[in-house]
Design a protein that fits this description.
Length: about 100
């Protein structure tokens, strides 16, 4: 997230702290997750405003790996991949 902050702060028109940016991202992800769960319940999910639909579509590209699937949360995938990688490293070590 620090690298994301350093990259993003150059593009922002106002000064924000890391905490402010991280909280904004956290809230956007939560909003996306809420919309995604509603989309699973409703085949034809509708949005009251066009920009909400656009935000949902962009968020889907960020937080899901595979389009047109029920999706796998990329953060969960990354955690599982790191866990598997560390388990393989332990098994390959002389003491493992």
């Amino acid at each position: 997230m620090n690298a994301f902050y350093d990259f993003t702060k150059k593009s922002l028109h106002i000064d924000v702290s890391k905490t402010q940016l991280f909280e904004k991202v956290r809230r956007l992800k939560k909003k996306y997750e809420n919309n995604a769960s509603k989309s699973k319940m409703e085949k034809d999910r509708t949005f009251s405003k066009a920009h909400e639909r656009k935000m949902y579509e962009l968020s889907k590209k960020i937080w899901f790996d595979r389009p047109n699937s029920e999706g796998v949360d990329s953060a969960k995938v990354n955690v599982k991949a790191k866990k598997n990688q560390s388990q393989r490293a332990i098994a390959a070590s002389p003491r493992g």
